[in-house]
Amino acid sequence: MAFSIYYKGRILHCLILAFSISFSCLHGSEPPLTLDYYKTTCPTVLEVVRKEMECVVSSDPRNAALVLRLHFHDCFVQGCDGSVLLDDTITLRGEKKAPNNINGLKGFEIIDNIKERLESECPGVVSCADILTVAARDAVLLVGGPYWPVPLGRKDSKTAGYELTETNIPTADDGLLSIISKFIEQGLSVTDMVALSGAHTIGMARCVNFRNRIYGDYIATSGINPLSQKYLSNLKSVCPPLKGADNNESAMDYVTPNVFDNSYYHILLRGEGLINSDQELHSSILAVQTKKLVVQYAENPVAFFEQFSESMVKMGNITNPDTYVHGEVRTNCRFVNT
Question: What SS3 class is residue 90?
Answer without folding.
Answer: coil
